[in-house]
């Protein structure tokens, strides 16, 4: 949120995701460094308008203050579980098998 040049790269990065990643990919925009309010270059409104226009999921974080850092990963996991339950995920046999990781409760997921 504190560096205009990074924000300006987003359209190009999204274009690369569209070009190289699967159509099924879920894109998350993480606006980091929200603790540095005085150095903010990207307004909340601008970030929200961009994410809405590009149809990407947007979250604000502060890595320094550990604020909202886990949320993007947990929300993404919930969305993948939701899509798997609806069988909308493509079965990609060439994908590596997941290794042991942290388990999350279905109950924490706010399915639509
Ligand atoms: N205050 C603060 N500093 C952070 C945060 N996240 C990373 N940093 C610091 O910011 C510096 C650069 O971090 P990077 O992750 O390399 O950020 P970057 O890729 O340069 O991102 P830009 O802000 O777009 O330039 C490092 O010194 C980090 O410790 C945060 O949430 N708050």
From TrEMBL:
Highest taxon of source: Eukaryota
InterPro entries noted in UniProt: P-loop_NTPase, Rab, Small_GTPase
Gene3D superfamilies the UniProt entry points to: P-loop containing nucleotide triphosphate hydrolases (3.40.50.300)
Any one GO MF annotation of this record: GTP binding
Pfam assignment, any one: Ras
Alphabetically ordered keywords of this record: GTP-binding, Nucleotide-binding
PANTHER family, alphabetized: RAS-RELATED PROTEIN RAB
Protein name from the UniProt record: Uncharacterized protein
């Amino acid at each position: 949120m504190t560096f205009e040049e990074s924000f300006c790269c987003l359209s190009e990065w999204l274009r690369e995701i569209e070009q190289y990643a699967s159509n099924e990919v879920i894109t998350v925009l993480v606006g980091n460094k929200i603790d540095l309010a005085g150095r903010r270059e990207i307004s909340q409104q601008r970030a929200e308008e961009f994410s809405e226009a590009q149809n990407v999921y947007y979250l604000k974080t502060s890595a320094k203050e550990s604020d909202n850092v886990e949320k993007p990963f947990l929300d993404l996991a919930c969305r993948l579980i939701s899509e798997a339950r609806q069988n909308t995920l493509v079965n990609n046999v060439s994908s590596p098998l997941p290794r042991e990781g942290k388990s999350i409760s279905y109950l924490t997921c706010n399915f639509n």
